[in-house]
Amino acid sequence: MKMNISFRNTRLLAICLLLSTLNLGNSLERAYGEESKPGMSKEGKAIGNEGQDLKQPGESGEDNSSHDFLAEKLQFVDEQGIPLIDAEVLVGYEIDDPFQNNRFTTDSTGSINLPAKWKSALPLTVTATGRVRTTFDKVLPFEGKLAVSKADGTKNIEVKGSTRNFGDLPRDGKVDFGLVLPAFRFKDLFHFDLSSVISSESDQIRIVGKKIDLPSNLTLPKQTESYIIPIVLEKPRYRIYVRETGQHPFFAVHGQFPLKDVVDDIRSGKSVFEVVNFFDFIEGGSTLLPISQSGARSDLAVNEFNIDKSFGVTAPHFPTDKTLLSFAMASMKNGFMVPTDIKRLLPNQSLSLKTTSAASKTSVLFVQTNTQTLEGLRPEAFAVQTMEDYWDLDTNSSLKKIRILDNSSLAPTSLFNQLTFVFQDSQNRKPPQFLEMIPPPQANPKYIRLQAPKVLTNITPVATYLVLSEIESTNSGNVPTERRTRLWEVFAHDWVREVQLPNFSFDRQANRKYRWEVMYLGSDKGTKSIGNDTYSLDEITHVTRNAVDF
Predict the structure, then answer these.
(1) What are the residues whose beta carbons fall under 8 Å from the beta carbon of 58, sequence distance 6 or more?
(2) In angstroms, rounded to a whole number, what is the distance separating the alpha carbons of residues 414 and 373?
(3) With b meaning 16 or more CB within 10 Å and e meaning fewer, what string describes 435-450?
């Protein structure tokens, strides 16, 4: 999200918007395993355990005719509860360990009969077409089900169009903008991907003769405002990308910010997070679009519902080296959520967040991160011009591209890898209680070693969730973005300090980096038995996370 005002202002503006829709997020929804998975990279070095590759169908481990089986069955399903047929299930750390013929294929109900030789807690690794390979750590034999999530798509699919119905826009000192985002599922909040907030693509417009790059999912209805000189702003079209075909919900918001206040504060040295409280979401619209392999085109209305209700939130006491952001998340149709407000909170501060009366429920996402990681968001980090500087540029400067973001510290890896967040009902006016931040995981070919947070009163440890992802770094102009593809998810009951990895080898590409991410999941709603049914993420209220790249 970015805006153009007077170049320096403009860019910082865009960022503010961007951050105002910060969603944290992308995917986690598992059984007692909820789910985890190893996945595969392509050419190069091994990512997982050094050692034997998992044998292919028809090799050792496939023939289970000599097995004694129990009557009980274990079922594997996708996120919609549909059985996974012909999925491969490895019981143990590698082929024929801890017993012979320990690999099984699910039947027409997505189930396997429990082998009689499975007598102790062992990892279960599930491999299925179109799914992320998933390991459930140290599972005892039980009759029930485990859920496996869908694999990430292999290409970006474009959705484009315009935003409409902004109404009459008077010259009132406020910049009106539109922002198009995918609506969020609860599990999306567990992963923050900068490209899900700011598009990895940029569109170029001209302002007072200058070329300005703006995020492709940001729009500007035609308007004229003044900052030293009159400025005409116009960018009616958006582009946004998804990685799967099918029905996708989208949210288009109409927001405003006072041009002079934001520009003056940014020029005085304040960060984007220090001016984000100026941003006001006024109204919005949501729609469900069918997406094919060729993409989709749709003009989105921003006036389907008003963002007209408010409720109070209060910050706890916290040290000054931390920054606290609060997001109002309105639950709309089909269980999806949309952000209707964002505000920064100071220690012990109380203020109001906005939501819409069209929501069935509103929750608050409190996100705490390190203040020092946000220093790249200060104006000196941006290669932009003030309006006064504009008039001193040489005659060829009008051909130069002026970027909204021009600093590598905005890369997702350096911003929000380490954070802790709380998700609570808007009617709960108590200050959030955060799990402590954790150090990054330590990974070697056989083990992932972790440091669990301290257990807090009234917060029940639920699970440890790890993800191995392939990271493709790209730039849109000078804006660093990431394309993350999950390769392997590991889900462990309770908060663990070490996970022994099953013996898989994966090739990796030399031009990609890889990331191990750990999340500790907790709940203030008590525990639900894990092991005989799919665990509901709706019960998760507290998460602390960190990651390491290699």
Answers:
(1) none
(2) 7
(3) bebbebbebeeeebeb
Q: Is the pLDDT of residue 411 over 90?
A: no
Termini Cα distance of the chain: 29
Q: What percent of the chain has pLDDT over 90?
A: 55
- pLDDT tens figures, 520-542: 999 998 765 444 344 456 789 99
- Residue 394 neighbours by CB distance under 10 Å: 7
Beta strands 133-139 and 479-493, pairing class: parallel
Q: Among candidates 515, 506, 510, which has minimal Cα distance to 470?
A: 515
Going by C-alpha positions, the residue among 70, 138, 51 that lies closest to residue 98 is: 138
Position 2 scores a pLDDT of 34
pTM to 2 decimal places? 0.81
Tell me how far apart the alpha carbons of residues 120 and 156 are, in angstroms, rounded to a whole number: 43
Assign residue 483 a region (left: φ > 0; alpha: ψ between -120 and 50; beta: otherwise). Answer: beta
Q: Provide the token pair at 205.
A: 């417009």
How far is the C-alpha of 235 from the C-alpha of 479, rounded, in Å?
19
Residue 295 main-chain phi, psi, to 5 deg: 95, -155
